[in-house]
Amino acid sequence: MYNKEMINAIFAHHLYDYCVVDRAFNIVSYSEHAEAYFDPACFEKEEINLLEAVPEFVGLEDTLQALFQNQSNALHIPTVFKVPDQYITIRVEQSRDSQVLIVLFENITDATMARQSVLQANNENLLLLKEIEEKNRQLEAYNHEMEKLVTAEVAKNLDKQHMLELQTRHAQMGEMIAMITHQWKQPLSVIQTLGTLLKIKYASGKLSETVFTEKIDNLLSQATYLNQTVNDFQKFFTPSKKKVHFDMKETMMSVLSLIEMEYALQNIEIDLCEEDVVRVYGYENEYKQVILSILQNAKDALLLQTGQAREIKIRIRKKENHSLVMIEDNAGGIPEEIMEHIFTQYVSTKKEGSGLGLHIAKSVIENNMQGKLWVQNTKEGACFFIEV
Predict the structure, then answer these.
(1) Cα–Cα distance for residue pair 235/285, rounded to 1 Å
(2) C-beta neighbour count of 49 within 10 angstroms
(3) Into which CATH architecture does domain 4-107 fall?
(4) pLDDT tens-place values along the chain, 388 residues long
(5) Cis peptide before 84 (omega within 30 of 0)
(6) What are the domain boundaries of the chain?
């Protein structure tokens, strides 16, 4: 019917085990390791039935019978799991005389495990990609939200800075108005005195043409001075629209004319020395505001000192093709702990200072006029250097 030894020899060199089944579905023979795929309970009977040994055939009896009757060529059951951890493929073939069926068991555990490992890795990669995609989406949403918050915060800070700059500018204007008030007191007093004198002379009939002309000329001179002061104040706070050439000493004198009376009342002596005749190309009014800001800081520092002369020295000189202005006071200098931050926004040595005056001054000189502004302590105080 079949040669068992020949079959064993063939399957011993391949990855197959087998069993031979008769028409009653009883196993009449099997290879050495085939019983590893049988249900252990089947060995309790003398005859081993295929349906009991391999439960996967239950329900396939008609298909097996069709094989015996040559109505079908083969039966294939792929990827069958066997406890504890094996996978097999079962294939049933006819014998030549159709009296038995040969059931082949191919162990595909390694291939199946490898395939499952690949599938698992692919699934994990897909999950990872989905997770990364979701994280990227969340990150993009977070970045978008942060960008909106940052933009809003920057806008708030710009508004705040703009308000502080306006407050600093208004404070500076207030100080200037106070200085102009002092500047005006003397000429107004002179005008009042001259007017009273003219009235008395006229009433007494002693107003000669010579006296009238002299006093009127004096009145006009005082009025011209008042008008010039107002014009200087108006120009001082009008931003320059374009760069111009201006004489450094004339510009400095223009600033000093607005503050000299105020500083004199505070017993602050200002010494201006022009070592070289210097003309500068830039924004004159903005440059004046830088000078005023530095002078005001010097004045505030000097007012804290008692028992000594208060002095501010201004030196004008050339440095190659640049101008160099040095403004030095004798107020004791800037504390070392804030020296490197003196031009930083919101840093101030004054209790009620905004910390914007010197910050704006540095921005004007270095950003608008491509110059340099720095400070050093001296033996007696601080010296600001302006190079343009």
Answers:
(1) 7
(2) 15
(3) 2-Layer Sandwich (3.30)
(4) 455 555 555 555 556 889 999 999 999 999 888 888 898 888 888 889 999 999 999 999 999 999 888 888 789 999 888 877 888 899 998 887 778 999 999 988 888 888 888 888 888 899 999 889 999 999 988 998 888 888 888 888 777 766 766 666 666 666 667 666 666 766 777 788 878 888 887 888 877 888 788 878 878 877 777 776 677 666 665 666 688 899 999 989 988 887 887 788 788 999 999 988 999 998 888 888 888 889 988 998 898 887 788 999 999 999 888 899 999 999 989 888 888 888 876 555 555 444 467 888 888 888 888 899 999 999 999 999 999 9
(5) yes
(6) 4-107, 243-387
Q: Could you please report the per-residue DSSP string of 116-173?
A: HHHHHHHHHHHHHHHHHHHHHHHHHHHHHHHHHHHHHHHHHHHHHHHHHHHHHHHHHH
- Token couple for 255: 């600033």
Distance separating alpha carbons of residues 328 and 378, to the nearest angstrom: 8
Distance of CA 377 to the CA centre of its chain: 35
Residues in contact with 57: Cβ distance below 8 Å, sequence separation at least 6, in sequence order? 25, 50, 51, 64
Stretch (H or E) spanning 194: helix 109-203
The tokens describing 207, both together, are 């107003």
Distances (CA, A) of 49 to 3, 17, 56, 76, 172: 21, 17, 13, 19, 111
Q: Which residue has the tokens 């491509």?
A: 370
Q: Cα angle at 138 between 136 and 143, to 5 degrees?
A: 90
Contact 75, 64 (CB under 8 A): yes
Q: Which of 142, 79, 151 is nearest to 115 (CA)?
A: 79
Q: Which CATH number fits domain 243-387: 2.60.120.970, 3.40.640.10, 3.40.50.300, 3.30.565.10?
A: 3.30.565.10
- For residue 40, give the DSSP letter: G
Buried b / exposed e over 127-137, threshold 16 CB at 10 Å, is: eeeeeeeeeee
